[in-house]
Specification:
This protein is mainly alpha-helical. 32% of the residues lie in helices and 5% in strands.
């Protein structure tokens, strides 16, 4: 669950400002393997009023990190 991972990151010293949630789907290809949706993304104080990450630059940062660390949608 995103909330469980969020708690671990915060306990390890991450800043709430920097922790966002997304889902990764292997085998869907680079353009469709990431869903930028999680309850932890609802942050009115940061201008994100939805479960989906709305800021294009932040989405690109998340995409880049996921592709570098996990993969870019290729089958496992």
């Amino acid at each position: 669950m995103h909330a469980n991972a969020e708690a671990l990151f915060l306990a390890d010293g991450s800043r709430q400002l920097d922790v966002w949630g997304a889902n990764y789907y292997p085998g869907f290809g680079a353009a469709h393997c990431i869903e930028y949706t999680a309850l932890i993304n609802i942050r009115p104080a940061q201008g994100n009023r939805s479960m989906e990450i709305q800021e294009p630059n932040l989405r690109e940062t998340v995409r880049s990190i996921i592709h570098d660390l996990i993969g870019s949608g290729e089958p496992w």
